[in-house]
Amino acid sequence: MITLHGFGAGFGLPEISPYVTKTEVHLQMAGVAYERVEAQRESSPKGQLPWIEDDGEMIADSHFIRLHLERKYGVDFDEGLCPVQRAQAWAIERMIENHFAWTMAHVRWLVPENFAKGPAMFFKDLPPEMQEDLRKQIQHEIGGNIRAVGVGRHSEAEILGLGVRSLAALSALLGDQVFMMGERPTSLDAVAFGMLSGLMTPYFDAPIRDRAMRFDNLVAYVDRMMAGVYPDHDWTPLFRAPEAVAA
Predict the structure, then answer these.
(1) Could you say which of 49, 73, 97 is where a domain stops?
(2) How far is CA 110 from its chain centroid?
(3) Among candidates 146, 165, 173, 151, which has minimal Cα distance to 212?
(4) How confident is residue 133, by pLDDT bands cut at 50, 70 and 90?
(5) Residue 96 gets which letter from DSSP?
(6) According to the model, what pLDDT value does residue 236 have?
(7) Share of the chain above pLDDT 90, in %
(8) Which pLDDT score, from 0 to 100, does residue 240 have?
(9) Number of domains in the chain
């Protein structure tokens, strides 16, 4: 059985990390048996989560886990897509992970109120004298990464604008389809669902979350995906915003 190492539940989500969620969707799509355990980044071969252990082989990073599952178990997560559609799905995945994801990281790590009730809690079980130093260190490192990719160099309004443009692109792509690329799920859905659910949780307050909730088709999409991937998670009562309107 495969062991999936992730952060665990939190922030109103069944899994804190959108990348771990992505891998869990891939595992379910592949139809392979697995168990999920909580882990620390330091335990990973690459110092990041997720990573899996499969018959003694350790594979880190959600993308390379995907490649491992496709190779070993004969899965084609993009089955049914033509070469052009496969290229489009890959380009959209890169937009989500390499750009849009950093706007969500900004919400969690660099908005003081969100950081205090979110990532700062990762260190609550450490000795008090260590907690504050580690919080400052990790926040500084993440902030540096957000700045290095360019997102962190912009104003709050500019970051919001970039995030909303990505949301609008995903909404237009989805349209009235069931999944991002049509009537059957593909690897892109694992990525999109992980990021969108991570943004839409009401645990964190942010203008971009409010704007995301105005895209009715994205709201319904995350609803569907959550019910399919995590049927036991009480998502809808937390998730549905009464003030949501059409974008």
Answers:
(1) 73
(2) 17
(3) 165
(4) confident
(5) I
(6) 67
(7) 79
(8) 46
(9) 2
